[in-house]
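Much of our argument rests on the idea that a fold can be written as discrete symbols. In the encoding step, the backbone of a single protein was reduced to a row of integers, each denoting a local shape. This step matters because it turns folding into a mapping between discrete strings. For completeness, the protein is quoted in full, as a sequence line and a line of structure tokens:
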Amino acid sequence: MVERGEGIYLFDTEGRRYIDASSGPIAANIGHGNARVIDASDRQMRKVAYASRAFFENESNSQLADIVTELAGPGLERAFFVSGGSEATESAMKLVRQYALTQGQGSRWKVLSRSPSYHGGTLGALAISGDPVSEATFGPMARIMPKVPTPFTYRLPEGHSPQSYAEHCAAELEATILREGPDTVLAFFLEPVGGLATGALVALDAYYRRVREICTRHGVLLVFDEVMSGAGRTGKFLSAHHWPDAMPDVVTLAKGIGAGYTPLGAVLASREMVDAVSRAGGFMHGYTYASNPLSCAVGHAVVQETVAQGLIPNAEAMGARLRERLIDVQKNSRVLGDIRGKGLLMAIEIVADRDTKAIFPAETRAIDRIVELAMARGLLLYSRRTAKGQFGEWLMIAPPLIVTADQIDTIAGLIGETLSAFEEQVR
């Protein structure tokens, strides 16, 4: 039972302290107990916690929109705030569809995405998420959209290098657009730095440029799902900023912009796109808590703290240190197969054999046991065995952006101890 949080730590009711080494599900970007955010919440609560968008605009919404769109940069001048990542995905899908109608492109409705991928838990988001297990369970209730392969860099099909497979995956995107009919394809959603579905996957730089070129050539809108990778986590406000020649048309955010202090997500789009939808009668979409004053005030304080404390450059510097320390751990581990990610969005892939990259049998419960062993040592890690291990299994290493060098070293040391303990169990 959790009792309180402070900085990168959580404390249970028995007094035990845990390092929140994955920021929960990669959400607690600025750590726990931030006084300025708490004060901002209190001030807004005392003024007005809720007022419907049907009657009022509110200052907190405007302030949050201004700071987020300024940080996002040209081409992303408008923001719509919701309660989380799944709502952001649904909102982005509806926005691009309505925009297509304003352009006389009513035949465009298909939303392509990658397999594996994850874009949310609602049925619309599930329809564009690449997870065969979820599709088997919930597919009859949704309209599953076409998928293209994800450009893995570690677990590759036979005969491929990372370069050739990235090229293959980009070529498959174009082939799928042509096969489905370019005049029917509306958008392509991708996670520029992977979340739980791919374990912090970062594709080769050329892949992003090629995807941007393909989407532009066929009039397909490119949407970056930055629910995990945005808000400074990768060392840029948007991970899209790592590839300035491949900027998306739309971005979704969540997690880090609320940092666990409030449920919050966002859709960012261009002035031109939003103005076109507005002129056509307005955005035919909304939620009760969309752009509510309290959540926007909290989000504004979170983003202000992210900038004022220099947490974005800290994410870049501490991410580099984390990678170095994890490489040191890997040298002494039989089960740490791959280290990947960008900034403080990192993952380690667990394997039974580093040479063959074979994973542990399901009955071993490898990552579950590693999580348990880590928790016993005061370390909290977020894990995933995607599609029952079809794509591998990994642990996310993504501490709050306030993490220090000494804390990075402690986290890496505890990961090393945890993996050693697991190796002893399965020896």
